[in-house]
Design brief:
300 residues; alpha/beta; elongated
């Protein structure tokens, strides 16, 4: 299945939400053209969680096109979405550093550990040597889950006993990545509420320890967001970005939500690139973000 097919399938529910607005544009023909009312289109955009500000901006842009018909609205909306997404920094993952160190952060239950494993599978398929770090030392189950993934993928997992200092785990992991000449080190971290300052401070410490062990690292700090949380995800992203300086977003569970427009809201309101999309449970269901495929999948 191609990237286009995967994104399209994953955005089915979101596309159905927008379709109601697009279908409403099939108004009575006036002087050989369709006269277009955008009220339902704007409501559908908001329901798809692009955000009120973005919905207003898109509708205003669409209204500027003279004598537009419904099919032209659809095509122009795709163009606008692509343009908005392209305003953010590059959505490509960092290349060049050796080892490349990627830190995953986010609240509980968004799919961090699974996303770490899926990205490991992607790098492994490219022939790269990958190490995993079990930085979620608060939950024994989290370490075990990552170890299961590591065994399945043939990837070593650096870990310590539950309750250990996560900063010590990541220091050991960076040291191991350098000693083993690994290409990539992917670091899982404990889920934490963005409203708890002490937990955010610990993440800042982890970032600092990584930098001491390997100057310039982490090269990517990826916030994992569950698409179904919608606008609440923006609040999470603001706090994590302020504390850590995020380099990008991973949006998971897009295949089960009508709120796929949150991707556009993130790019627009935070200026952060969405780098990966989670489109299912399979190991290969984490795909690179591509603006054109996203716009086609969302609008149809």
């Amino acid at each position: 299945m191609s990237l286009w097919d995967r994104v399209s399938a994953g955005l089915t529910k979101s596309r159905e939400t927008l379709a109601r607005g697009l279908n409403s544009l099939r108004a009575p023909v006036h002087k050989g053209r369709q006269t277009v009312s955008f009220d339902e289109m704007e409501a559908a955009l908001i329901e798809a969680d692009v955000g009120v500000r973005m919905a207003d901006a898109l509708i205003e842009e669409l209204k500027r096109v003279p004598d537009v018909d419904a099919d032209q609205v659809r095509q122009h909306l795709k163009t606008l979405i692509i343009s908005r997404c392209d305003r953010a920094p590059s959505s490509a993952l960092a290349e060049g550093p050796h080892p490349l160190v990627v830190l995953f952060v986010g609240v509980n239950g968004v799919g961090k550990t699974t996303s770490v494993a899926k990205l490991a599978a992607r790098y492994r398929s490219q022939g790269r040597q990958v190490l995993l770090a079990a930085g979620d030392t608060f939950r024994a189950a989290a370490v075990e889950q990552l170890q299961i993934w590591g065994a399945r993928l043939g990837v070593e997992v650096i870990h310590q006993k539950p309750g250990s200092d996560p900063a010590a785990v990541v220091f050991d992991a960076v040291s191991a990545a350098k000693a083993r000449d690994a290409d990539v080190l992917l670091i899982d971290s404990a889920g934490r509420l963005h409203t708890k300052q002490s937990l955010m401070d610990e993440l800042v410490k982890i970032k600092r320890v990584i930098g001491r062990a390997l100057p310039g690292a982490p090269h990517e700090i990826l916030l994992v967001l569950d698409a179904s949380t919608g606008q609440n995800g923006l609040a999470q992203a603001r706090v994590f970005h302020e504390a850590l300086g995020l380099t990008g977003i991973v949006v998971t569970k897009l295949d089960g939500t009508p709120k796929g427009g949150i991707v556009l809201a993130i790019v627009d309101e935070l200026g952060l690139p969405v780098k990966l999309l989670g489109l299912g449970e399979e190991p290969d269901a984490l795909v690179p973000f591509e603006a054109t495929a996203f716009a086609e999948g969302l609008v149809g």
